[in-house]
Write a structure and sequence with these properties.
heterodimer; A: 271 residues; mainly alpha; MetI-like fold; 76% helix; B: 251 residues; alpha/beta; Rossmann fold; 10 helices; 36% helix; 27% strand
């Protein structure tokens, strides 16, 4: 009897979780798909067509920019933490505390900081660059953390074998350890992309809400999520904002599938 | 006897725990020397002092000397990477890199600056032939090394070790995780390799020591109890403890 009750609650929880997700996706798709019109994908944004294509392009710019900044930084700091720093180095604890604190800060606070520092103090103005730097700080902890875990998961026997052949530290880390950790690192990067694509609060005050394709990284431009936020908060184009949500959903799903595919390809090369 | 490696009063501590108590021994060139003894007796630790793999472990203190070709490898001016190129190592568990068979063998030579494709091809073929693996893998050099069987992987690790042309190969219980057929193949291989290389192996398996080693050293609780020709050590052990161990009274 007892086990039946337990089973019931376990199934119920799983059911509710799955149902919530299903409901959310179905709701967005049902509301959004009928509103998907060709005019939403015109090259130029006007207040009539509320085209999302510029926002999609800005999203891609933003994602690439953030990754260019945050991925090397995150990976190299993780390499330092795992491979170079001595175990009792006090710096490790300081860095760990910093990254953990960073990952707990609400994104609006990052937005505020970005506005005060990058936009105002550095005089970059509302720009993709200011937004990208703000988001980089935001996703850095998660990239670093996943890379650290991936590096730690590489068996020491690989390192021993490499040292045993007379390879130095640098060669061992970059030719043996890092390649073996790539699938793990990649999953961290994918998570980061998910956050970049979905972020609004940190971008509104740093990258701005200009609805056109940015000409350069010093231009302001809204990403897809910000675009959607604006459409729905203005209240004039709610239907279009549902359509935007569909595109955002598909985009995120596509990124996830792509990452799975890439990870399998990389694994396939070694196993 | 021409000793290629000689240790003098070698002592080693992990933290406060003394693992090696004044080991002095000579290892002759082009022979197979087996280090035997019960678990935790320090034989693996001793083996790892010979190419300074213990450097990788924190909290180690070493005194005494290990002379390789008459030079102390613990003196400050020694280039450790060069030393490890000359004194290669095969580990207990096969540990091929997660790359292709070819890349596994080519990694060592590439590390030491060989870039020419034809030269690398030559080294890969020669090393795989020397480790008796060539016939089994020559058609799939580009496939992953992790797809090989355990015994094949270990022979690949031997090929990888000899790809940089060492003069000494250290083997840390390198057949312990393998089946008898693979073990037999590796033992045959070692018998052939000793004409070109000096082999020092740690083994738990006394039959193995008898079968293939020329000389044998018995370790117990961090001490070198006895060393000499394998034949003599097993037929007429000088020390009571050696006798007790090889007749199976403990260990």
């Amino acid at each position: 009897m007892k086990s039946k009750i337990q089973k019931f609650f376990v199934m119920l929880s799983a059911g509710i979780t799955f149902a919530a997700l299903l409901f959310l996706i179905a709701y967005i798709l049902i509301k959004g798909i009928p509103n998907l019109k060709l005019s939403l994908f015109t090259w130029k944004y006007t207040s009539e067509n509320v085209s999302m294509l510029p926002a999609i392009i800005n999203t891609i710019y933003m994602t690439v920019l953030v990754l260019v900044i945050a991925v090397p930084l995150g990976i190299f700091s993780a390499i330092f933490m795992v491979e170079y720093a001595k175990k009792r180095n006090p710096l490790i604890n300081v860095i760990r505390l910093t990254t953990e604190t960073l990952s707990g800060i609400p994104s609006i606070v990052y937005g505020l900081f970005g506005m005060l520092f990058f936009v105002t103090a550095l005089k970059w103005g509302l720009s993709l660059l200011a937004g990208a730097f703000t988001l980089s700080i935001m996703v850095l902890p998660s990239i670093m953390r996943t890379t650290e875990e991936a590096l730690k998961a590489v068996p020491d026997s690989y390192r021993e074998a490499s040292f045993g052949l007379g390879a130095g530290k640098l060669r061992t880390v970059f030719c043996i350890v890092l390649p073996a950790a790539v699938p793990g690192i990649l999953s961290g990067i994918i998570l980061a992309i998910g956050r970049i694509v979905g972020e609004t609060a940190a971008l509104v005050y740093t990258a701005g809400t200009v609805a056109e394709t940015a000409d350069s990284i010093f231009d302001s431009g809204r990403t897809l999520a910000v675009h959607m936020y604006n459409l729905s908060s203005e209240g004039l184009h709610v239907n279009e904002s549902y359509a935007t949500a569909v595109v955002l959903l598909v985009l995120v799903a596509a990124i996830n599938m792509l990452s799975g595919f890439v990870a399998r390809c990389l694994d396939g090369g070694t196993k | 006897m021409n000793a290629i490696i000689e240790s003098r009063n070698l002592k080693l501590w992990y933290g406060d725990h003394q693992v090696l108590k004044s080991i002095s021994m000579e290892i002759p060139e082009h022979e197979i020397t087996a280090l035997i003894g019960p678990s935790g007796c320090g034989k693996s630790t001793f083996l790892k002092t010979l190419n300074r793999m213990n450097d990788l472990v924190g909290n180690v203190r070493i005194t005494g000397e290990v002379n390789y070709n008459g030079k102390n490898i613990y003196s400050p001016e020694v280039d450790v990477t060069k030393l490890r190129r000359e004194i290669g190592m095969v580990f207990q568990k096969p540990n091929p890199f997660p790359m292709s068979i070819y890349e596994n063998v080519a990694y060592g030579p590439k590390t030491h600056g060989i870039r020419s494709k034809t030269e690398l091809d030559g080294i890969v073929e020669e090393s795989l032939k020397a480790s008796a693996l060539w016939e089994e893998v020559k058609d799939r050099l580009k496939t992953s090394a992790l797809g090989l069987s355990g015994g094949q992987q270990q022979r690949l690790c031997i090929a990888r070790a000899i790809s940089v042309h060492p003069s000494v190969i250290l083997m840390d219980e390198s057949t312990a995780s393998l089946d008898p057929v693979s073990t037999g193949k590796i033992e045959d291989l070692l018998m052939e390799l000793k004409s070109q290389y000096t082999v020092i192996m740690v083994t738990h398996n006394m039959q193995q020591a008898v079968r293939i080693s020329d000389r044998c050293a018995f370790f117990l609780m961090g001490e070198l109890v006895e060393s000499g020709s394998t034949e003599q050590l097993f037929a007429k052990p000088q020390d009571k403890r050696t006798e007790a161990y090889i007749t199976g009274r403990f260990g």
